[in-house]
């Protein structure tokens, strides 16, 4: 009887001890959850991380500096940078320096006068191109002996088919009929000076500088039958014209 009572007492003590332990554990959990407001209940939702701050958009890169040059920077609109239109320059007449053909005249030629024995009473004029460009011998030589006020007429039958062209260093020729072979010419006289002038394309007037070829010291006899032939490309054509 005494043994049964003792066993029952021990059982009640054990139950009480277990209940007390359970209450103590619950109280500790509640105290931990309430301390500083930092505790988290098992049923509480997990805290969400704050949204990350968006990074600022990168700034546009600055333009690279232009390389340094000697030319000044261009300013203003493209239209204002264009040069103003200028009227085309008038074409210049060709000159020996251009390499284009020019008119043969005293400044670009050398003239030599030589009396001929056949045919008699004739003078041969030789014009050599001393320039650096070709030149044209237009028409016939305009000759003046002494103090003559006019030039002699031309022999029309001697006209060549084409204008005589002289390259640098080449020569053209013309003959001068000085006097009548039978002595029928009037106003015969001896002259010791000669001037030769050159025609332009029109053939109506002399152009450029003239030439003064030397004559024999004793002079040349001329009369009113004085005539000249056209310029020729060859000496033979000049002598037979």
Short description:
Helix content is 18%, strand content 24%. It is an alpha+beta fold and 241 residues long.
SSE blueprint:
Layout: H1 2-34, H2 78-81, E1 102-103, E2 109-116, E3 122-129, E4 135-145, E5 164-166, E6 171-177, E7 189-191, E8 194-199, E9 206-211, E10 220-222, E11 227-228, H3 235-240
Parallel strand pairs: 1-4
Antiparallel strand pairs: 2-3, 3-6, 4-5, 4-8, 6-11, 7-10, 8-9
Can you put this structure into words, describing what you see?
The structure is a single chain. With 241 residues, this protein is α+β, with helices and mostly antiparallel strands. The protein is built from three helices and eleven strands; from the N terminus they run H-H-E-E-E-E-E-E-E-E-E-E-E-H. The chain has helices at 2-34, 78-81, 235-240, and strands spanning 102-103, 109-116, 122-129, 135-145, 164-166, 171-177, 189-191, 194-199, 206-211, 220-222, 227-228. The strands form three sheets. Strands 1, 4, 5, 8 and 9 form a five-stranded mixed beta sheet that branches. A four-stranded antiparallel beta sheet has the order 2-3-6-11. Strands 7-10 form a two-stranded antiparallel ribbon. A hairpin with a 6-residue loop joins strand 8 and strand 9 (206-211). The longest helix has 33 residues, at 2-34. The radius of gyration is 63 Å and the shape is elongated.
């Amino acid at each position: 009887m005494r043994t049964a009572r003792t066993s029952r007492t021990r059982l009640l003590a054990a139950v009480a001890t277990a209940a007390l332990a359970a209450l103590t554990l619950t109280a500790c959990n509640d105290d931990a959850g309430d301390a500083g407001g930092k505790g988290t209940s098992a049923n509480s939702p997990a805290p969400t991380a704050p949204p990350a701050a968006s990074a600022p958009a990168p700034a546009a890169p600055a333009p690279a500096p232009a390389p340094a040059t000697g030319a000044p920077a261009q300013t203003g609109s493209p239209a204002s940078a264009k040069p103003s239109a200028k009227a085309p320059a008038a074409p210049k007449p060709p000159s020996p320096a251009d390499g284009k053909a020019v008119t043969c005249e005293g400044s670009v030629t050398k003239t030599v006068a030589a009396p001929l024995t056949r045919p008699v009473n004739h003078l041969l004029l030789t014009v050599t191109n001393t320039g650096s460009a070709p030149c044209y011998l237009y028409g016939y030589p305009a000759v003046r002996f002494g103090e003559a006020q006019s030039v002699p007429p031309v022999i029309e039958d001697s006209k060549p088919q084409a204008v005589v062209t002289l390259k640098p260093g080449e020569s053209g020729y013309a003959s001068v009929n000085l006097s009548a072979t039978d002595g029928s010419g009037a106003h015969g006289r001896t002259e010791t000076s000669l001037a030769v002038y050159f025609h332009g394309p029109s053939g109506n007037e002399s152009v450029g500088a003239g030439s003064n070829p030397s004559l024999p010291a004793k002079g040349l006899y001329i009369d009113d039958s004085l005539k000249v032939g056209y310029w020729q490309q060859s000496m033979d054509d000049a002598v037979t014209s």
